[in-house]
Amino acid sequence: MIFTIEPMINASPDWRISIDRKDGWTVRTLDGFNSAQFEHTILVTPTGSEILTKL
């Protein structure tokens, strides 16, 4: 199985977001504060796991 972990960190005290209706993908905070997002892709097998996107 392969899955991703995608945390999003916001500089805003308000955690609410909106998704861009044009592309259905872009996420923004409602108050326009800066945000950062990153992702790890993880492979899980019967014998263990491996992070495929190591920093």
Automatic annotation (TrEMBL):
Which GO molecular function annotation, any one, does this entry have?
metalloaminopeptidase activity
Keyword hit for Hydrolase: yes
- Keyword terms, alphabetized: Aminopeptidase, Hydrolase, Protease
User: Which superkingdom, per the lineage?
Assistant: Bacteria
Which named protein is this?
Methionine aminopeptidase, type I
Check the record and name the InterPro entries matching this protein. Creatinase/aminopeptidase-like
